[in-house]
Give the backbone structure.
Amino acid sequence: MKTTIEDNLQKAILSHSTDEAWRAFKLLCNNSIFPGKHLTNSLISHLSSLKDTQNLKRAFSIVILLLEKDPQLISLDSIQILLEAIKLADLTAPCLALMKAMLRNKFYPPFDVWGPVSIELCCKNSSFPEFLKFFNEICSTVAMDESLNFMKPDLPTFNAALEACCRFGLVTEAENVFERISDMGLKPNSISFSIMARIYSKKGLKEKILELQKQMHQLNLEHDAKFYSGLIIGYISSGDLKSASLFVLQMLREGSERSSEQVSQLGVLDEGTYKAISEGFLGQGKIKELAKLIMDCLEIESKLAVTAKSFGSGVIDASIGLGFVDKAHSVLDEMNAQGASVGIEIYTLILKAYCKDHRTTEATQLVSEIGSLGLRLDAESYETLIDIAMTNQDFQSAFSLFRDMREARIPTLKMSYLTIMAGLTENHRPELMAAFLDEVVSDPRVEVGTHDWNSVIHSYCKLGRLEDARRTFRRMVFLHFEPNEQTFLSLAHGYCAAEKFFSVLLLWTEMRKRMMVNAGKENPSIKFNHNLVDAFLYGLIKGGFFDAAMQVVEKTQELKIFVDKWRYKQVFMETHKKLKLQRLRKKNYRKVEAILAFKNWVGLIT
């Protein structure tokens, strides 16, 4: 009978017939029989892998039953798979019950099996006191039997338990866990002492902190940044800002008395500590007190053997990260009011925060303040500010920043210059582009080129502001910038769109002269191309300037540029189909000759 049911159980597992497998197992149990070890663990693993509550309960009940009746049938792998499934389901009670059952039935799992899962599950909720009882029982069991050292918790696990004690405010329990570290033959590290320091300072237990410092001395452990972080965070949590400030200063004084190597070993406060300080002071509106603390720290830091991240920078950075940008600026103002010498680093942090929040007005004002104090921003900060200003279409702020950048003698202006020009082009503001070019054209760091003037001309033409485009053209020529094919193309398209065909003729005359002057040069400024041919032929034919049109044709033949004659034949027929050559011949023989030459070229004369 057993063999038949076991066969059915195995088939059910292989075919994923879970309910059938469960019924087969129960049938065996009802007859006080258990499947073989391999089959039993296959069933446990299968049920655990399904990750639903019902089958997890089934796997759990099998393991609990076998721990009581026949523990040898259970493999450690199955226990680990079940515990991982329990962790994923976030089920603390079954986790604790399973581990207690293992201890009760002397089924001793290695630390790797029970430790990580239980710590992660049980240290974050109200079941932690129950976990501590189990944890102490494990430690006691190991202490009494050295052969069970494989169950011993490691130091990170002790520290995680201490962290949970701190979170739940369990002082006595934390002290017991701390003592257990030595019982297990381990040595508490700086993290262990830091957590204990936090626990004691939160409760205002100053005598306990002194004892803790003595223990550190006995273990030859230095007071490092981790230890001080614990004290500072604890005092701030209890609202004792005065004691927190004293320990900040004590830490820095210790650093000022050490060598470069010792200062590096002392370390710096971490981001979490800076955040706690910011929340503690600014949350209570203690702006003057925080400014005073930063100033005291600046004085001590000036004597440090090595330069690390300053306390003031850390606090301001954390304040900004918490959304206290305006309060951080208020701290800076208070420091200035008290006559502190504030470095550029703190200004830069606030400045970048304003940029990130698109507060360009405040950022520009701060830049002016920085300049008035004789401080100097780096190129990256200016570039970021200008980029934000242009994104917000705050063009005047961008111009102001660029002027400050020039006055600060920043060696490279190219990126910011390009950002402004691109933004103005995208927003169709050629008048601002022209004014900006006039302002910077003489600065060798900017490297203004013909293409920049072309951008202005093109924008004006697109907007139909042809007089402004022509004025810009004259300005660029006056400043000795050589117009190129793009310059003339933009103007030609603008004139054609506005049906100012006489202006097209004048433009062609000017371009033709320039091409004649440049003839024979290796790199002529104007490269006659198909686009220019099309623009000028269209405008000259529409305007009836056939002599000039044939000059364009001659140029295309000279340079072997292909021309679609059909297009210009159509333009002629649409515009001049009623033209009477006989009447025109009496008035302007030369024009008639040009018309005939054109008609012959496009194939209107056979």
About this structure: Residues 229 and 273 are 6 Å apart (CA to CA).
